[in-house]
From TrEMBL:
This is Blr7723 protein. Pfam families: AAA. InterPro entries: AAA+_ATPase, ATPase_AAA_core, Lon_Prtase, P-loop_NTPase. It comes from Bradyrhizobium diazoefficiens (strain JCM 10833 / BCRC 13528 / IAM 13628 / NBRC 14792 / USDA 110). GO terms for biological process: protein catabolic process. One of its GO terms (molecular function) is ATP hydrolysis activity. Residues 263-410 form the AAA+ ATPase domain. SUPFAM superfamilies: P-loop containing nucleoside triphosphate hydrolases.
Amino acid sequence: MLIVDGADHVEERLIAEVEELCPQLSHNLAWAKGRSLEGAMALAAELDRRAVAHSEPALRSLADSVRLVSLPTPRDDEHFQQHRRVAKALVKAFQLNSLIVEQKVRCDLERFTYGWAALQACTHFVPKKFSAAMNASLVGHRTAEHRISAAKAALRLQFREENDRRKQREADRTEAVERQAAPILEVIPDHHLVVARLSENEMKSPKLKEIIGPLKDVVNVALPLVQAPALYEARNTLLFEFPYASEVVDFALADLVGRETVHLRPLLIVGEPGGGKSRFARRLGEVLGVAVWRSDASRSDSASFGGTDRRWYSAEPCHAFLAIAQARIANPLVLVDEIEKAATRSDNGRLWDVLLAFLEAETSSRYPDPALQTNLDLSQVSYVATANRLDPLPGPIRDRFRVVSFPKPTSKDLDALLPAVLTDLARERGLDQSWVTPLDGIEHEAVARNWAGGSVRRLRRVVEAVLRERDIHASRN
């Protein structure tokens, strides 16, 4: 796609990457000087040989990339096998990545991938002077132009029909108002939701006024739903901070594919202590742009999490509504930390039992809050829980969560983790990241010597100790 957009640095980047993996490779040097087709094919063949001999899949990918940027538009069978090989690699890559890129990028990649696959049968109408890569995009567009036109026509027809129905509804509503002298019904904007509705008489109730207090600004108000960000940007941000948990990142974000607003189905992250589960859950919400409300399961029960009855002096709405009121959005993320440590006694009701009503779409959209004594629409609230193990959790809770295992990093992940750790520590100190320079060789060695993988919390403590020593040394000098 860089080639199609007219980028002129693609070949230089490939040469640099080959040099990084195969220093002073004569085939790479020859291609760098001449940029001939013969040189490119020779380099690709040598990279394939080395990929097999040294078991390095990255070299095979680079070989296919060299072919892609070098092959001409096919006019005969001379390079048939080379074109076919690139086509197979493109199709496989597209199938693996199509669900984790934003829609615009996915459409562009699909056009290019299948345009390349069909190129050999379509050479009679593509420009002869263009490369295979440039013509692949053209062919891909031609293969879908009638479907695109049909889709546009269907959308126009749907828009006209919806517009006609809207006009009819407005006319019917106007007629009803004029006939009955009734007030016009409220119009809720797109991507908004009224979570709590109370009558004027209820709002004036002395007991309810004490409970609502600062919450009154989110009652009878259409609250915005935070829209989903570009998923590839969110994925890159999370992978930068959690490079060892790529499967968890993709598992969590896959739930947002095709959604306009942020809403995750209940997600349970299970892993050993210290691996960064809670921090991942918090950062997931922050990266998606929604507020995160944390509830400690070991200190929560049915009464506190699900809300306290209005008859009690300490009456309080449920945690999900408090999260909505604090953020003033209808789709915050509620983090239930260490859910397996919730109390098992039923004096005040078990947290596990009350959670069931929040995790089901049918009941969460009509949750009867005991303090406000009205049904709340909590259907757009996302719930993420963490646990060190699954053992104590009852079956109904496990059934309602999507469960994913969170790994611990190893010493091989140190270099990938350090930038995120330094960034996080700088944020906690209130410093710009540019003020915290990367660790030098001695500091890096000290960290590696004292952290052999495992707990990210321990890694943070080790890095903090190294930074303190750096600050002390700087002040002495």
